[in-house]
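## Example record

The block below lists the input lines for one assembly entry, exactly as stored, with component labels intact.
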Amino acid sequence: MKPFHLILLVLAGIGIATVISMYGNTTQYVAFPDAQRIAQENPGKTVHVVCKLNKAKPIVYDAQTNANRLEFYGFDSLNNESKVVFTKPKPAQFEHLEKMVLIGTYDKDHFLATEILSKCPSKYEDAPGATTASK
Amino acid sequence: MNQTPAPIVFNGEWLWLGNLGHVFVILSFVASLLSAIFYFQHEQNKLGNSLIWGKRFFQIHAAAIVAVFVVLFSIIFYHRYEFHYAWRHSSNSLPVYYMISCFWEGQEGSFLLWLFWNALIGLVLQRTAKDWESPVMVVVAFAQIALGSMLLGFHWGELKIGSSPFDLLREQRPDFLNIPILGQLGVGNYLQVFKDGNGLNALLQNYWMVIHPPTLFLGFATAIVPFAYSIAALWRNNDRGWIAHALIWGLICVGILGLGIIMGGFWAYEALSFGGYWAWDPVENASLMPWLIMASAAHMLIITKATGRHLFTSHLLTQLAFWLVLYATFLTRSGILGEASVHSFTDLGLSGQLLLFLLAFLALGLVVVLQGTQRRIALISIAAVLFVPMILAYSIKSPEAVETFYQWLKGLGTVLFLGWLVYYVYALYQRTKIEMDDEKLHSREFWMFLGSMFLILSLVQVFAATSIPVFNKLFGYKTAVPSAADYNRVQLWLAMPIMLLMSLGYWFKFRGTEWSNIKKPLTQIGIGVIIITALLMFGFDIKEFKFVLFLLLSVALILANTVYGYQKKKWEWLRWGGNIAHVGFGVLLMGVLVSSVNKNILSASKEGIDLAPEVDQKGNQDVKGIKFNRENQLLYKGKPQPLQQYTALYIDERKGVGADSIDKFFKVAFIKKDDQGKTVDSFILEPKTQNNPKMGLLAEPSTRHFLHKDVFTHVNYESSMDRKEPFSNFRVDTVGFFRPFITQTGKVVMTIDSINRSKDSNGLRIQLAIKAKRLGDSVWLRPEFLINEQTGSFDMQPAESNRFGIMAAILNLQIIDPNPATQNIRFVIQTGEKTPVWDYIVIQVIEFPWINLVWAGTIIMVIGFVLAVLNRIKKQQQLTS
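Predicted structure tokens for the full assembly:
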């Protein structure tokens, strides 16, 4: 074997190791009960939960008490409900969000989200009649 | 009897304009097709005038593309909302200079822009490619056919070929014709209702968004040229003359693409509120991937040009670079990224066509690589038979009954595609492999090769991570997209060997170097690097080992290339290109390191302050060791708040210019004092919010730039977003000037101080200045009363103060003496009360040290690329003359 091929082999090895370690570190989209289990087995590991806001329950954000705490209730994709605490200010038009991805970990009785990914309800395509009616 | 309804006549539509545009689309498509055929005839069969015809048709094609551009712009400019594109992406209030941005908000416009750049590049190639013109232009024209088909907008039942930018609103959105108001007006008059468009995404209304997308697209477009030369060379029986051309265009591509990417980062930093310039968002990665591989390919081309080695790798990487551009297009335009990206792109249902596009270019490569007509025909036809049903499976929504069959088809298609790709690489290797001795360890080509391979490793990680949504879709996984930290952890280590090789590479000569010749300068540089790094470590305050190592390597990169340039090239600036580009890259990476490692969130809460319920005894960490993003501070209006070494004061807010502006600017002062209490630094920032009816609160940051740092701030929440408590304790008083009156509870005392009359088209406007006092504090209220003199009707505009929790409205006027000079008027004033609230904002303030290095590095790098390209062109001209 030529030394050149050895170098190529080493490079390929680094490449494969990089990719494997990265996939090993990725998290899965999980449901709330799984998040709870993972938090017990593996404290500190963050997970992703696809969540739907429960619009029937209160959304609590009082900036003057704590500007970095938002509380609400949400359903995961299997319709399990959980209390969620988010450690940032309330995102704009939060009440209208259809779907969001929570990133964080489970803490006792609530999911502690450090990040919420959401598509802003951009671009409502309303006919002019409809928009004027809502004003 | 069954009566067919009379066809509806639609009034006021400029259908001719759309038809004209569509004619140009078809003309450009046909012209590119003919151009490709004639160029092909010339290359393959040297048929009479075919070269001239190929040239002419491509010029016609380019002219038609410009015409399509003009027509689409006119539709937007004249607000012709009968066309879906104009309605969807523009509005009446859109300034002319942002109208151009409408082109890249929609997919059709983006494809048009790409076509435009390719056409321009084609015209340049007609002048510069010389004897390579015909095979190269076949490939460019082929790309134009593929891109042009994306705009055709032909429909056969479920199957859709392209999406026309000239589609009509009423055809795209037939539901709009059913809105109730049209019942009275008549459906034919729908344009009287659709007088305004849906508008351009507010985030795109930024001057950086006028310049960043076209630059990026130009970078993407130039990637086709090295690819075309590679294909042309294989076509011409493995001719070696392609390398010099491909290298020039490869360098142009890396330079422009790099500039475009950083421009995007600058836009994100200046206009978006995620607090940074790079977030490893899939859309950002999609533009980074072609850059990484093209940078790698350009270096391989340099090696092949100088030594004749690695011809296969040069071919492979130049071709992969173009495929990655296509893959990036597929990722961002097919809607597959879904929730993985904050960039929202709609799916036009063209996934199948985009895949076909990818496959067509792979087929093109295969045709030129394989030898022997029969083998070519056999392989291509087998592939076609297998792939057509699979492309259809991607294009047509599956009927439910055969859902699994469709899934199965798609899966098979993916496996076949990968198999085909592997076979292609193998065939390419067989065609272009070169038997040569190994390069020497002390040769430049060896180190350059190694560096290029590390760039590819970096690419592999980005590719694997960015493609996760694709794998999820293909194999039904549920893997979440990696976070920025996942990328940083890997890329930090991969960047280091690249930096080391970039510093050393130039010192080695091609084919071999005497160790003794470079021992001395490299030792001297090494000592210099250690001293400078030690100084910078303290200057930048970098302590962690891996970051110090990164810093050291960036210093080495800058120093080694500067010294080399000076020693070997003296003042021949044109030859400095490569070194300057390397130095720029070093400066950029140094800036990235310092600005992110020592990023300081000024608004982060410290231990002991503002203890939140879920914080444990240790302070900012919860029991599981996750650091909280406790990064926002509440500022009450008029109340100073310490933010580390600064004191922030929310002074006031103002509305944007224009009566119906939805912009709000918050004036926040930052003051820094030294130990003696003397002000050493003070400045005012005005972060903006836009209460966008379509998108909610959009925050635009405001940044104070210093040479050595930036202070960046944006508003995340403000008191007017709270639910309003209604007023109560109403009370009505009839009072004159200077006569004190009180609110219901007596807490606030008011006096009317002055009156202001003005006349406009709405009638007479009376504004009172009322001074409200409470416990030694006072505030001005300015309620208004409007009298329409023609109709005699009146209207009122109450005024309120949240801080005092009061409101005042003028209900009526009682004029005792008609002569206003005597000021003998009584006003009927209604007052109301509620719990006083102080206005506040919740802001995030971040200090980015030395972020200017990132921008400076980019500029230096671009200068380096310009010099390198000029130098290569000069060499090429000397060679041919």
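The CA atoms of residues 366 and 424 of chain B lie 6 Å apart. The mean pLDDT of chain B is 86.
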